[in-house]
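User: I'm writing a tutorial on reading structure tokens. Could you give me a worked example: one chain, its sequence, then its tokens, then a sentence or two explaining what the tokens reveal?
Assistant: Sure. Here is the example chain.
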Amino acid sequence: MARDRLDGWSEIAAYLEINPRTAQRYEKDRDLPVRRRPQGGPKSPVFAFKSELDSWLKDNEPELKSSGSGGRSSELSSNQDLSGPILARISKLSNLTLYRRDYFLRFVLHRTREGVRANLECRYQVCNATNERQSFVQELTVDDPDHGYVEEMSFLVDQKPIYFLKRPSVAERCLGYSIYRGRELTLEPISAGVTYECRARWVLNRSEDDFWNTHMVLPTIGITVETQAPPDFDITSFFSTPDLVMTGEHLDVGWNRKR
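And here are its predicted structure tokens:
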């Protein structure tokens, strides 16, 4: 029998074929049927059931269509070519200097004697939105509850490696987390046609029933997340969006062992 439960905003939004921010707005404005763990508070991880979402879609379909929200797949397809206008609008409203494109994350879960180990890999382009050179430092944060470490960090210019750091040392220890940093670099404006790419691999150790999230440190256009887990685990499934995700918003991956 197919799994009825969906864990996290990303998985719920992927099922509805909208972006996570729209799903959060639907919960607030249209009573989208999502649930939270008891005593978890308004910011605790959410989950939903496909059967309840299907009923909600059926009840709200006329209103969604009349308001221009559309149905499944309409929102993602309509946003495919909006990155230019979106960035132009943000630039007028804020001091946009750097942003990211095509953020890719692979999250692979392995069973261990104590719980699970997650191997993570990410890559993304970093872009200078101004007409002047800008400084940039690659950073990766590992929370203390992750009991993890960074395996490697690298930075490429036009596909050529500038540095490769194997098992880098912690650059700064803060209350509750550790920061790993690459070298400080200078980025040309995007109009120069130079491509800059960050890559990283790191390891987390968590419990069998848990979740992980990462907050965006820069505005990011285009996100793809791939997840893998042993067959006796449920995990947030693959999801992707071409939309803009702003600084402070986050990606969630949740998992639990089937009982």
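What the tokens reveal: Helices lie at 8-16, 20-30, 50-67, 74-78, 83-93. The chain is about 20% helix and 45% strand.
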